[in-house]
Design goal:
Layout lengths: L9 E9 L11 E8 L4 E8 L10 E2 L3 H4 L2 E9 L5 E8 L7 E9 L10 E7 L17 E5 L7 E8 L4 E8 L10 E2 L4
Antiparallel strand pairs: 1-2, 2-3, 3-4, 5-6, 6-7, 7-8, 9-10, 10-11, 11-12
Length: 190
Amino acid sequence: NQSSKTFGGVEDKQWLAVDRSAASPFRDSVYAAWAVFNGSSTNIRFSYSRDRAQSFSKPVTLTAPGDVGPSNTYVYPSIDAAGDVYVAFASFPSPVVGTTATLYVVRSDDGGVTWGPFVPVVTTQLSPGCCLPNTTFRDGIAEHFAASQTHPGHAYMVWESWSGTQYDVMFSQTIDGGMSWSAPLKVNDN
């Protein structure tokens, strides 16, 4: 009977990724990432397994409010062709999910033990209400993310961008392990 306003933690937005890269020193590792809502902030937690999910490392907090903002959610772990682990997420400027989110990516090149810097991909506008105009669809998760299974250092992000009347679908990519991102490109055709 907990909600996102409960102090102590509600775990949500959990995703898994499995390292299937033949070239990876961490092949068959399983990575888990999720958001922990505690009523005043939301942090990203992370854990890994080296024995095909028979056991997991002690969870660590990837984000702290001082690093990227007080509300971090919509978590996506992914592994590239070299076995580097990426975690993408949306960060909101207040403890409550709002209408502006900065999308971040962080990368580990040692199987999730240590992490590089949080790199902002873009700040996007989201719908101010719950539901999309002229539909019965609710608003949803702001972004989706995938690392390339064939090209080391390549990863891709798509996200929603609210124009005031409709959403556009935007795209950006990195070819240097998430350190820089291409200019946003609108990929939908109304």
